[in-house]
């Protein structure tokens, strides 16, 4: 019975091509593609249609957390360096720890390896693993340095988890402030204002205009909840459709990259990911074009992704990687200078790694600046909003009280 395979390859003109083909097994597919003049560098079984994002990403019991991936790689690297066969090492990982998701991942990988797959091919079929991991493991298997590659990938994953954790921690307090402000507004609109309005108007006081507008909004929502709910659902659906458009996302990414507060953080985090990954791949003898394609696959910002795609096209045309990055990838000038120096001195991998470390330190400082600016700004804005509304209502109450006296 034939199966479908997704492939990425280089044709006779040096162009990168992708497609889907059918065959009985991987060997026959590789032979057929080679006969067509294609040099295949990635071949995976085509995946069936996945389940919804809710069951796959939010409620899936087999969803492995990023920190667990780092733990898995580190344990596996230790076992492989001790000369334990891959399937035995995966069996050991599957029997350790309390994470059911990690145990399930290890068991699936072990079964695939025991069926004759390489570890890289088995990892490429796992949706929960970083896209770059399979390519790195493949390079480690081919060069005989799998343990070192796994350890390096574990270290890089730990850094990613730490940096993303700092970003989340920086946003927790502003998020909680926003939630409390929203709850306070709901309380004021639905309970406080309806109770105070008759009292103020009966005593001849003037209900403040901001409070009157909010009260009218609350009354409208309570009288027509279906209509307002439908409008909210339509707005959410419209936003989903808008964000599904690639051109809009790239424009939004470009705007965010140039924003005064979040722009430097986005630039530093994306630069860290790209430079660290390129340093890691080039160090283990991955070809520069393939390394750039791997970096593009893990880049989230549309501006960086587009720049890496253009840099890859330049590499196919014979340009150097430093010139291509300087022209298309929006790294900071000091990082592009490091890359150029590394290319001239023959230490490109080391310079990419060093550039990733510099970007990582800059990202940490950007997070500190973000916390220093966003937290007090959020506190002041919400304080003025809630405090101004409460003050206007209290002023109206005191005016009504004076009128009665």
Question: Could you please describe the fold and organization of this structure?
Answer:
The chain has 405 residues and is mostly helical. The protein is 75% helix and 6% strand. It has 17 helices and three strands. The protein has helices spanning 26-35, 53-58, 66-81, 86-94, 100-114, 119-124, 131-143, 146-202, 209-223, 225-243, 246-258, 262-283, 288-298, 302-316, 321-328, 333-345, 348-404, and strands at residues 3-10, 16-23, 39-45. It has a three-stranded antiparallel β-sheet with strand order 2-1-3. α8 (146-202) packs antiparallel against α12 (262-283) and α11 (246-258) packs across α12. The termini are far apart. 29% of the residues are buried.
Succession of helices and strands: EEHEHHHHHHHHHHHHHHHH
Specify the biggest β-sheet.
Answer: 3 strands, antiparallel
Strand order of the largest sheet: 2-1-3
Overall radius of gyration = 28 Å
Distance between the termini: 93 Å
Identify low-pLDDT runs.
Answer: 48-61
| Residues in β-strands, percent | 5-15%
Number of strands: 3
Helix percentage: over 70%
Helix/strand layout:
Layout: E1 3-10, E2 16-23, H1 26-35, E3 39-45, H2 53-58, H3 66-81, H4 86-94, H5 100-114, H6 119-124, H7 131-143, H8 146-202, H9 209-223, H10 225-243, H11 246-258, H12 262-283, H13 288-298, H14 302-316, H15 321-328, H16 333-345, H17 348-404
Antiparallel strand pairs: 1-2, 1-3
Helix pairs in contact: 3-4, 3-8, 4-5, 7-8, 8-9, 8-12, 8-17, 11-12, 12-13, 12-17, 13-14, 14-15, 15-16, 16-17
């Amino acid at each position: 019975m034939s199966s479908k395979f997704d492939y990425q390859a280089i044709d006779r003109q040096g162009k990168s091509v992708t497609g889907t083909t059918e065959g009985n097994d991987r060997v026959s597919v590789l032979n057929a593609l080679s006969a067509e003049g294609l040099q295949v560098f990635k071949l995976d079984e085509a995946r069936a249609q996945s389940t919804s994002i809710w069951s796959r990403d939010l409620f899936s019991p087999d969803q492995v957390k990023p920190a667990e991936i780092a733990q898995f790689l580190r344990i596996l690297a230790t076992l492989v360096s001790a000369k334990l066969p891959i399937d035995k090492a995966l069996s050991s990982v599957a029997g350790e720890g309390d994470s059911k998701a990690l145990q399930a991942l290890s068991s699936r990988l072990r079964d695939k390896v025991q069926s004759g797959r390489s570890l890289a091919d088995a990892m490429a079929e796992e949706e929960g693993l970083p896209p770059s991991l399979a390519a790195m493991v493949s390079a480690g298997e081919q060069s005989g340095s799998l343990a070192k590659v796994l350890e390096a990938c574990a270290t890089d994953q730990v850094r990613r988890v730490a940096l993303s954790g700092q970003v989340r921690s920086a946003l927790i307090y502003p998020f909680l402030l926003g939630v409390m402000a929203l709850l306070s507004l709901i309380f004021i609109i639905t309970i406080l204002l309806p109770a105070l309005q008759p009292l103020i108007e009966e005593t001849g006081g003037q209900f403040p205009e901001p409070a009157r507008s909010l009260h009218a909004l609350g009354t409208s929502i309570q009288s027509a909840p279906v209509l307002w709910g439908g409008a909210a659902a339509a707005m959410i659906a419209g936003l989903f459709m808008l964000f599904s458009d690639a051109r809009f996302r790239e424009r939004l990414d470009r705007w965010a990259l140039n924003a005064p507060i979040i722009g430097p953080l986005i630039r530093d985090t994306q630069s860290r990911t790209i430079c660290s990954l390129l340093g890691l791949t080039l160090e283990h003898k991955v070809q520069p074009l393939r390394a750039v394609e791997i970096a593009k696959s893990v880049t989230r910002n549309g501006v960086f992704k587009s720049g890496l795609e253009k840099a890859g096209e330049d590499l196919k045309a014979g340009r150097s990687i430093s010139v291509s990055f300087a022209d298309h990838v929006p790294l900071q000038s000091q990082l592009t200078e490091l890359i150029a120096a590394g290319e001239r001195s023959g230490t490109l991998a080391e310079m990419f790694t060093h550039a990733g470390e510099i970007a990582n330190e800059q990202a940490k400082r950007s997070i500190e600046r973000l916390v220093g600016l966003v937290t007090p700004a959020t506190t002041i804005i919400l304080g003025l909003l809630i405090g101004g509304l409460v003050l206007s209502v209290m002023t109206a109450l005191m005016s009504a009280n004076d009128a009665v006296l």
